[in-house]
Write a structure and sequence with these properties.
single chain, Threonyl-tRNA Synthetase, Chain A, domain 2, 5 domains, ten-stranded mixed beta sheet, binds adenosine-5'-diphosphate, binds magnesium ion
Length: about 750
């Protein structure tokens, strides 16, 4: 960690503050506590004085005397380390009260369970008596406990309300998820019963009894004599729900070790140490020139900015410093500085960009405690906070992630760091990637990894998906896999992948195997949207809404943070978002619903908005060099494991996934659009009247016009009343349609 406390002796000497008694008080408390503890524990080795002291303490505090002595020592140490003496005094008083209340509680135990002796001492007896006299033993005891817990929450700065809310939220989410699974499972079950009811009489009866509505849509009730005919006229029957048992795979697979990664460079840090001292002096002097006396406390260097904490003398206004922002920036020769209040230290922080940004390497991130100890296979070493602390998160609860920013801002590097983070954690049987890279720039490094997955092809043909049409069909198949998993989970009455895998591992149910997580990564969403925005959006939405429980997670990246790519539908389903540097405030708003990303420094400087968080955190992203990514991939490839999975959909089964009604409507709309586009191309203009003449009805014309606009073929610039027509896009679309029609 790069956080270090900085006792600037140089600066202290100059400021010439009178010596305070804090160190003496702190040392006194620590020593007194330690000595008392010794006397109580080693009673027979502490002489006459020690014995008497111990007896007094034990009489007064009971067994709580041990805690009292340790607490005293602890307070000494914390005074020594505390930056804010006022806050320390408050804490000291409160925790002294806690000791007394604890004695009281211990005595109450003796009151309720007389078999237990009073371990609370004289103090406990008096405290308990106090409460009892006022409120009686029952209410008094409860009150003693309540005050004790309340004071604890104040000292330790947590709130019981928050804890309660968090527990409540988790429970609520679980219940909702369970309901969704139940509903979907029921629907799927009904469909299956309905379609297989032709073969036996029992099934027929059940279909009618269990699923009256499903039977109505799928099987007309008027035809009970020949129920098999409509069942067959439906889309081809999907393959059986169960995935065939997996052979033992990847038994010898080894996760890549960290020593194949480039080590971080630390030399710059030493050099910067002096630069930090110089800047601290400049800060102090500049403010001094304006008549503001400050002392520089901690200096907290981060990868991109360094924070200098100023302790203000009493009576100096925070505003008097913020008004000097530009002067300070000038004196520090910095392009921009940020001034932040630090209430917990009652100090003012000045964030100054470092002359050279430090690269946050994947190696140091992967060595961080948070990363090593995180049990999730989807652990993501995202980067470091502005004070240089590793920030590690988990994709599972997100459950989907949106990444956006201008070209060259660090999106692809971020995707590499996600993939490599996961490769350093997860085995190929735990997790699979679907990699979609229409630009064909970044992801070829990972070709051939056993972690690759594509539900539309067999494992021997799996690869990085670069063709946008192929990507679309893969997403469609994935929706189908998702439904199959729901069905499978419902059969075993589990509600998410974690419980399913637990069950699969703990009980050797015939043919039941753990299933892998699926992470879909799309580097450049805009390129996919070009083909058919509506369809892509539909699939993404269906996956995003339902997929978390069955272990499917989506990561989308785009360099076009405009509303036609990051649509309302996508935003609503992606609550975890990363914004890299954007070119405008508008783009920042599209991604984060707030400005700020436009002021980032680029090259991995990011704002990360965790799901449900009110404000984003600023991070410097983890850097994964091409060499590191290659080394990890090579290490895995050298082990010779091939991709292997059972969950894929045969071509003929593909149609089964989409609902027939939707299909029909979609097909109709597509035909309307095609015919309208041909018309527009021929006449070189577009209008309501033209379309009305062509389609025959005014309503239909309006409908088609809005479809054309929605797909981006035509647009009406603000303030004008004429349509602008994108002929090139129309031609491209028509050409595409013709070529697929030929196939
Ligand atoms: N986390 C990072 N740390 C340091 N440099 C970075 C980081 N992320 C990106 N860069 C620099 O920025 C360049 C562009 O990043 P890239 O991810 O390709 O951008 P994008 O995909 O957004 O166009 C990289 O080649 C690298 O030099
Ligand atoms: Mg890129």
């Amino acid at each position: 960690m790069t956080y270090y406390k900085f006792q600037s002796r140089l600066l202290r000497k100059k400021s010439g503050k009178p010596a305070d008694i804090r160190p003496y008080l702190a040392a006194g408390l620590t020593i007194a506590g330690a000595v008392m503890f010794y006397f109580i524990v080693f009673n027979d080795r502490s002489g006459v004085v020690g014995k008497i002291a111990a007896r007094i303490l034990l009489n007064f505090f009971g067994r709580v005397a041990y805690i009292f002595a340790l607490w005293l020592a602890y307070e000494g140490v914390s005074l020594w380390r505390s930056k804010n003496e006022k806050k320390w005094r408050m804490d000291f008083a409160l925790s002294a009260l806690e000791v007394a209340l604890l004695c009281g509680l211990v005595k109450f135990v003796n009151v309720y369970f007389p078999a237990v002796p009073n371990y609370g001492g004289l103090l406990g007896k008096n405290v308990a008596e106090f409460f009892t006299r006022l409120f009686g033993p029952a209410v008094g005891g409860a009150l003693n406990l309540t005050v004790f817990l309340y004071a604890l929450s104040v000292i330790k700065d947590f709130s019981f309300k928050d804890i309660f809310h968090r527990v409540y939220d988790v429970a609520k989410r679980d219940i909702e998820e369970y309901r969704k699974v139940r509903a979907l499972a029921k629907k799927l079950d009904d469909r299956r019963v309905a379609s297989s009811s032709g073969s036996d009489e029992v099934g027929k009866a059940r279909a009618k009894a269990v699923a009256p509505e499903a039977a109505q849509t799928a099987t007309p009730p008027k035809a009970p004599v020949k129920p098999s005919a409509p069942a067959r006229s439906q889309t081809p029957a999907p393959p059986p729900a169960q995935f065939p048992p997996a052979p033992p795979q990847y038994v010898n697979y080894k996760i890549p070790p960290l020593d194949i990664l480039t080590p971080p460079k630390n030399s710059a840090e030493e050099e910067q140490h002096h630069a930090h001292l110089d800047r601290a002096k400049v800060l102090q002097q500049t403010l001094g020139d304006f008549g503001i006396k400050v002392e520089v406390g901690d200096i907290i260097p981060g990868p991109v900015v360094t924070r200098y904490d100023l302790n203000l003398e009493a009576g100096i206004k925070y505003q008097s410093i913020t008004t000097l922002q530009d002067n300070l920036a000038l004196a520090l020769k910095a392009a921009s500085i940020r001034i932040v209040p630090i209430p917990e230290k009652s100090a003012v922080g000045i964030e100054v960009p470092n002359p050279a940004t430090r690269i946050v390497t994947i190696k140091e991130m992967a060595q961080a405690d948070d990363f090593v100890k995180n049990p999730s296979p989807l652990t993501f070493a995202l980067g470091q906070t502005t004070d240089g602390v590793p920030y590690v998160t988990d994709i599972i609860p997100m459950p989907h992630l949106l990444i956006a920013g201008a070209t060259g801002s660090g999106k692809s590097v971020c995707i590499h760091s996600l993939i490599v983070s996961i490769l350093l954690k997860a085995r190929p049987d735990e997790l699979k990637f679907i990699l979609i890279d229409p630009k064909r720039l970044e992801l070829p490094i990972y070709a051939g990894l056993p972690h690759l997955y594509d539900p539309s092809v067999t494992p021997d043909k799996v690869g990085i998906i670069t063709d946008a049409r192929k990507a679309m069909s893969t997403l469609k198949q994935l929706v189908y896999i998702m439904e199959k998993r729901y069905e499978l989970f419902a059969k075993h009455t589990v509600r998410n992948i974690e419980s399913f895998n637990e069950l699969a591992r703990s009980r050797s149910v015939e043919g039941m195997h753990p299933v892998h997580y699926i992470v879909v990564i799309i580097d450049e969403l805009a390129d996919l949207m070009l083909i058919s925005r509506r369809e892509i959006e539909d699939d993404i939405q269906r996956l995003a809404q339902m997929a978390r429980a069955v272990g499917i997670h989506l990561v989308l990246a785009t360099q076009r943070p405009s509303v036609d790519v990051i649509t309302g539908v996508i935003k609503a389903n992606f609550s975890a978002r990363i914004a890299f540097q954007t070119t405008s405030k508008v783009d920042s708003r599209v991604i984060l619903d707030a400005i700020g990303a436009d002021e980032l420094l680029g090259r991995g400087d990011m704002l990360f908005l965790p799901p449900g968080a009110p404000r984003p955190v600023r991070l410097q992203g983890t850097f994964v060099s091409t060499k590191d990514a290659e080394n990890v991939a090579k290490y895995i490839l050298a082990q010779g494991h091939k991709p292997s999975y059972e969950e894929y959909v045969r071509r003929d089964g593909a149609a089964a996934s989409a609902a027939p009604v939707d299909r029909e409507k979609e097909e109709k709309e597509k035909q309307y659009i095609l015919s309208a586009l041909r018309l527009v191309l021929e006449r070189r203009r577009v209008s309501q009247d033209l379309l009305k003449a062509h389609f025959g009805s005014s309503a239909q014309a309006t409908n088609v016009l809005s479809l054309l606009e929605k797909d981006g073929f035509i647009m009406k610039p603000e303030g004008t009343n004429r349509w602008t027509i994108h002929y090139d896009k129309i031609q491209e679309h028509l050409a595409n349609e013709e070529s697929t029609a030929k196939e």
